[in-house]
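Continuing the batch. This is chain 6 of the set; chains 1 through 5 are on the previous pages. Same settings as before, nothing changed between runs. Recording input and output for traceability.
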Amino acid sequence: MVLVLHGLCEIAGHGTDAEASHIIVDEHGATVGTFRLDDLDREGWDSMDAAVDVVLGHIAGNNAAEYWSHESSCWTNDAPSKRMPFAFHETGTLWMGDSELDSVTDAYGRVHATLNLFVLGGATFPTRGSWNPFRTMVALAIRLADHLSHRSVEDHA
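Output for chain 6:
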């Protein structure tokens, strides 16, 4: 039996903090992500790692688990690092929130101080998830479509 166990978490956002995690396009047109984990982020990841170990222990009973080694392309008894070298999706560049002092968009993705400019997708996420955010993006798109379909003509002026 082959199982894949992985913890999922979010990286805490720090809004307008100049030292916050961020995504830029550099002078060569390459997307560059800078991610800074604080103590709470590390504590959350360590807790998830410990939970994965507990689940694996329950599944394996008293038997030793084997792990797939990508480096040597074989099974080994040595547990691999639980940290992926890079497992982020570009999100959080146009944060949603209640105030234009600490966010770019409202909860529906409308850019603060505008009437009809909306942002869809992961850019509005106030935190960065560590797994594929596709379903969350679709849910937000459906929610925005429903919200916009109930707006009156006066709301669009």
